[in-house]
Amino acid sequence: MAKQAKAKLDRKGLGSLGLEKLIDILLDEAAANKALKARLQTALAGEMGPDEMARLIDKRLDAIDQSTARINKARARDMAVEFSALARNILSELGAVDPQAGAERILRFLGLRFPISARLVADSARLWKVFDDTETAAQELIQSVDAEEQVLLVPHLERLRLRDRYGEHTGFLLGLTSVLAAPGAHAWRDALMAVLADEPMKFGALDLAQRLSLRLADIDAFLSLEKRKPENRRDTLTVAALLAEAGRFDQALEWVRERPRGMRLIPVNGSLTSVGPEYGAHERRMLEAEILERLKRREDAQELRWREFSETLNPEVLKLYLSKLDDFAEFEEMDRAFAIAAEHEDIYLALDFFISWPRLDLAARLVERHNHDWEGRYYDDLAPAAEALSAKEPRAAVLLYRALVEDILRRGIGMAYPQAGRYVGELARLMPELPDGHGLSTHAAFLAELRRNHSKKYGFWSSVPGGMQG
Angle at the Cα of 155 (from 82 to 148), degrees rounded to 5? Predict the structure, then answer.
């Protein structure tokens, strides 16, 4: 029996329906589907040229902008579909034939976000996703506009920025500063500079003007704008890094030594963030040392690196310090570094340093010397250290694992009982590897002590290999 052919929804299948049938179907669907209707109208307008297409899109954008009707959840869902189609029409239909006109309309579209939010009865993640997705495509469209025509977009960019009261488009606007060609970047910066005196010191005109100055490689303009900020808005570390990268080391040294006092509001990953005076302290000291090195002040740079290591016990800082020494001098300095780490007031920092260097023998010596000082709540330090020490320094590993188990049980951290049970399993494995005369209580004695003090913590004992019998 011959296999019956199946109808397929593809170009060949639809073509077999005939033009008249397809027209009837599209008209029926368009009567009930606003998104489809708008797309068909835009396509028809495109046959008459981009001006007619732009007129039709403007008419729809005006209607949305001027509406004051409240938007319930059901209407918000429908609008998400409708807006997605409208954005697609602007980007794909109009933008394909007239990128500059398409860019103007897509910026108008993005500006609808605020009036729409004021009309919503309840928040709509689906609707906001349409705007977020459109921003990515809009940036690509704006980048494709001819350099001279990008200048014509500046009034639309400013209109969008001023409408953006709550920073929804901050990331988009910042992203545009890196894709505009020189004419557009100059024109937008000039527009921003004209309104600086009238705007509060928020993340707005001044910050965008600075980003555009970087786009134009105009560091002097960037510095001038930074000096206009109040002290609690200045990002002296970023300025110093820019100056150092440009080879202006004397200026960079002045800025890097302008250490902040008190809380500041500075851009962090594109968002205005409140940070304390110690934010970026390590990066600041390392940059200062690099600047001093470039200014031929090697001794001052090394002194700063050594001071940074002595405080932080950062292995990378020590490696950098040692790499700058004369031949054979590193061995003596390394011994001095190990001595400082061994006497450091933060024993957990010291343990991390010896483990990561690695000097497991010195880590084990530190563990032994502070046998009764380790607190299991610092498990992020102790657990990896115990694991690293297990093979070559089993006695030190036992001390750390016991500290971890005892702390978990003493504080009754139920969610950590399975982990404590695994630590007991490690202890059972390590104890036979200890040499005679190791000076520690046996594993059986350790378990007996746990049973006396924590016999009713069944969640723990159910995780111990062998249960309460150990």
Answer: 105
> Can you point out the beta strands (E) in 212-299?
264-268, 271-275
**In one letter, which amino acid is 199?**
E
Which 3-state string (H, E, C) describes 281-322? HHHHHHHHHHHHHHCCCHHHHHHHHHHHHHHHCCHHHHHHHH
Residues 42, 82: contact at Cβ < 8 Å?
no
3-state secondary structure 311-342: HHCCHHHHHHHHHCCCCCHHHHHHHHHHHHHH
**127-to-38, 107, 134, 160, 351 alpha-carbon distances in Å:** 18, 17, 11, 18, 51
Is the pTM higher than 0.85? The answer reads no
- Tens of pLDDT along 204-257? 899 899 999 999 999 999 999 999 988 899 999 999 999 999 999 999 999 999
Q: For residue range 336-356, what is the model confidence (pLDDT) as tens digits? A: 999 999 999 999 999 999 999
Tell me which H or E stretch contains 382: helix 379-389
Tell me how far apart the alpha carbons of residues 149 and 172 are, in angstroms, rounded to a whole number: 20
Burial classification of residue 280, based on how many CB atoms lie within 10 Å of its CB (0-12 exposed, 13-18 middle, 19 or more buried): middle
Distance of alpha carbon 40 from alpha carbon 36, whole angstroms: 6
Nearest residue to 107 (alpha-carbon basis) of 168, 155, 53, 45: 155
